[in-house]
Amino acid sequence: MLMGTDRVFYLGLLGAPSLRNFGSLTVYASLQRPLRIALPGGDWVERDMAVVPPFQPHRIATDDQMIGAIMIEPESIDFGRLPAALQPTDGGPDAAMLERIRAAYAYLQRIGMSASVEGLDGDQLFWGEALPRRHLDPRVEMIVERIAQAPNAQYTAEECAAAAGLSFSRFLHVFKDDVGATFRKFRAWKRARSMLYHVTRRTTLLDVALEVGYPDSTHFSHSIRQVYGLPPREIFAGSRRLSLLVQERSRVRAA
Predict the structure, then answer these.
(1) Sign (positive/negative) of CA torsion 178, 182, 184, 188?
(2) Is there a contact between 211 and 198 (Cβ–Cβ < 8 Å)?
(3) Collapsing DSSP states into helix, strand and coil, what is residue 12?
(4) What is the pLDDT of residues 180-224, one digit of tens each?
């Protein structure tokens, strides 16, 4: 798994998740057999590739239990200028894009944890181009950056409104309009997402819960299951053989 501030490129076990709800734009790609996806109240649909909008509850399944999943943080991209293949649609996949994604995963598997990943550009590798960035209100961008860098911090909307120089109600309106999610949803997603940095650690779930900002293991388990469709224990068990590469804006380090 290659993980950075705005992207996650995951290749590995899917498990048997129930309803999941990511705060990212999520691109699923089948590796061999087609995947199946279902929205609440809808039928299962077979696909080789599926694009799910942020905060869209869904179920996903594969016969071989392996999946490619790319999670793109919505505040980092301009949805209106995304390539057509990355637009959520009920149509079939872009065959060229699917093959490019599979080739990119094969490349990551070949290089593994080697030093050759230094400076790797995930967007160029997977899409062949940099995805268009969203231009945020500078006041909102400051808060987004603050939460992204410290998702375990207990920032309140009132504190963030004051830091942005806005009234409480105006801040909530501007934040949702710019980011595409409420402040509470955004903060909860960033906290749940930050758990992925720890999935290969050999430590207790309580230690992880406290480190990523949950008050106890019960809240941690409940919140993570709501997002990923699996309890933390199953996620960590399924990640024992996962290679994790953490790629920040200014550096790349193995974990």
Answers:
(1) negative
(2) yes
(3) strand
(4) 999 999 999 999 999 999 999 888 999 999 999 999 999 999 999
165, part of any domain: yes
Is residue 252, in this structure, part of any structural domain at all?
A: no
Task: Please indicate, yes or no, if residue 132 is contained in any of the structural domains.
Answer: no
pTM above 0.85, yes or no: yes
Instruction: Assess contact for 224 and 213: CB atoms under 8 A.
Output: no
Burial of 41 (0-12, 13-18, 19+ CB in 10 A): exposed
- Of 127, 151, 172, the residue at which a domain comes to its end is 127
Pairing between strand 35-38 and 59-62? antiparallel
- For 178, other C-beta atoms within 10 Å of its C-beta total 18
Q: Which domain holds residue 16?
A: 2-127
Secondary structure (3-state) at 120:
coil
Instruction: Confirm if 255 and 4 have CB atoms less than 8 A apart.
Output: no
Sequence letter at residue 166: L
Average pLDDT over residues 39-59: 94
Query: Is pLDDT above 90 for 118?
Result: no
119 & 210 share domain: no
Distance of alpha carbon 233 from alpha carbon 254, whole angstroms: 23
